Amino acid sequence: MTIAVGSLFASTISSPSPSLILGLTAIAALYASQWLIASVRCRSKRIADWVDNEPLLLMAGRTFLDENLRRANLTRSDVHGKLREANAFNYDQVLAVIFETTGDVSVLHSPDPDSRVDMEILQDVIDADQLKDAAAALSESKSN
């Protein structure tokens, strides 16, 4: 939305062919269509499911989910950058890395290696069940 409005505004101001009224009308139409989609999305689960992305689990504990990285068009290097940005010092601190619906990457981490993520926080995250599996494997390896 920001890029589209900026582009319309710049082309309206910088060139004489689209008039100011035409450019402002286009910007108003863009805002109106965004408002319409947002309001319909809030009223209809079917539309929301069609329009919205779902969050996607990229790492479960210290395990990369390579198929999900491909689905999100991200690399391990991209995730490494997000881990550094979140001040995660080692993989043992990582509880989960999630590709959010906004395109942001969230890193859930803790200095306590026995920390667990409340599964309600991961509601609607694709493959969140793999985090449960990773936690079970970790606790099993600690007991051995």
Topology:
Blueprint (H helix, E strand, L loop, with lengths): L1 H13 L5 H24 L1 H7 L4 E5 L2 E2 L1 H6 L4 H10 L8 E6 L5 E5 L19 H15 L1
Antiparallel strand pairs: 1-2, 1-3, 3-4
Helix pairs in contact: 1-2, 2-3
Q: What can you see in these coordinates?
A:
The protein is an alpha+beta fold and 144 residues long. 52% of the residues lie in helices and 12% in strands. The chain has helices at residues 2-14, 20-43, 45-51, 66-71, 76-85, 129-143; strands spanning 56-60, 63-64, 94-99, 105-109. The protein has a four-stranded antiparallel β-sheet, sandwiched between helices. α1 (2-14) runs antiparallel to α2 (20-43) and α2 packs across α3 (45-51). The chain is elongated, with a radius of gyration of 21 Å. The protein starts with a helix and ends with a helix. The model has no long low-confidence stretch (mean pLDDT 85).
Specify the structural class.
alpha+beta
Mean pLDDT: 85
Helical percentage = 40-55%
Strand order of the largest sheet: 2-1-3-4
H/E element order: HHHEEHHEEH
Give the N-to-C terminal Cα separation.
53 Å
Count of individual beta strands: 4
**So what's the overall shape?**
elongated
Instruction: State the low-pLDDT regions, or none.
Output: none
Q: How can the largest sheet be summarized?
A: 4 strands, antiparallel
Percentage beta strand: 5-15%
Q: Supply the number of helical segments.
A: 6
CA gyration radius, whole angstroms: 21 Å
